[in-house]
Amino acid sequence: MVSLSAFAFLFSELVQYNQTRVDNIAELERRLEDAGYAVGARVLELLCHREKGNRRETRLLGILSFVHSTVWKVLFGKVADSLEKGTEHEDEYMISEKELLVNRFISIPKDMGTFNCGAFVAGIVKVRMGYDLAVFHWLFVTSISSNWPKLNKLLFLEKGVLDGAGFPAVVTAHFVPVEGQHRPRTTILIKFAEEVLQREARLG
Amino acid sequence: MAPLAPRTGDAVFANVERVNAELFTLTYGAIVRQLLTDLEEVEEVNKQLDQMGYNIGVRLIDEFLAKSGVSSCVDFRETADVIAKVGFKMFLGVTASVTNWDAEGTSCSLVLDDNPLVDFVELPDTCQGLYYCNILSGVIRGALEMVSMKTEVTWIRDMLHGDDAYELRVKLLKQVPEEYPYKDDE
Q: Where's it found, cell-wise (chain A) (predicted)?
C-alpha cells in the first residue's frame, strides 16, 4: 500500500504533463486512455496469474462481473457500486461508481468542457474487454459528492482489461448529474463491438 | 487548533488513506513509458522526471508538515532522519536509512531497500542511462527548497542498474533563513 496522496500527486503530474503535449481535450483524453490502457494490460496479467489460474472469461456477463468485482477490488479496494445494462442499446452496459478514485482530487476548469479523467480507468477496462473489433463504451457513473466539479478522468484502465480478455469495446467516461446530489456521478459506458454480441448469441 | 505532536512514520501512515501499491507502481510505469516515447533521449527523460518530482515536492511538503506534526528541524541531520523515517513512510509506505555522513554534516545518503516505484520493472538495454526513480530526487529537492534548504540530490546506487539497493546522495548547498517582510522594531 502507498498513501492516496502519493497516487494523487503522481496522477496529477501525469495529467499536467499530458496537457503540455496536446492541443485539445480529445487528445488529452486519448493520451490518458493510452496510459490507462498500459496499466490495464499489466493488471490483467497480474490478476490472471494470481486469481483465475488459466481460466478465461468467455461470456459477456462473466467479463463484466470480473471487471466490476475483481478488477475494481484490486485497484480501488472495493467492488464497483453497480452494474447495469443500457436500456436503449443492446450493446451498452454501465458500471456505476459513487466516487471514482481519480476524480476525487482533481477539479476540471469550466473551459475544459466535458473532459473526464475517468478516461484513465476506461482505458484499463478496455484492455479487459478487448477483441479485434469490439467497441464497447463503458459508462461509469460515479457520483461525486463534494461541492466542486471534478475532473472526470476516464479510466482507460478499464479499456485495457476488456481488450486483453477478448471483448473489444469502446469505453468512455462521462459525468451524469444525479437528483438530489450536488456533484454528478461518473458513468463509465461500455459499448461492445458487434462481434462480441454475435459471439454471445452463438454461445446461447 | 494546537499543533500535532510529532508522530512516528508508522503512526502517520496508519492514519492516511491508502491505495493499492500496484496501481501506483503501474501508473508510474505508464508515466515513464510516455516520457520515453515522447522525449526519446534518456537524459531528457531523467530531467523531466526530476522536474515532475520537483513539482510534487513543493506541494507535498505542506501535507507532510500538516500530517506529521514535525516542526522545524534543528539541523540537517534531523532533517535527513525525518525524511527517511517519516516522509518516505507516510507517502510510500517504506522507510529509508540514513548513512555516510560527511565531516561537516551537510551531505548524507538515503538508502532504500524496498521501493514501490520499481516493482515488476526491468530496464531494457536501450535505457541503461535512465534513472527510473528520478522523480524521487526531484521530490526531495522540491520539498526541502520550500523549507529554505537548497540541495543537490544524486543517485549513487540503483537496483535497476544491478546494485543491491537504492541510494540517494543528498547534499545541502545553502540554507536560506526565512525572511520576514517586516521588522519588529520598526
A: Endoplasmic reticulum; Golgi apparatus, cis-Golgi network
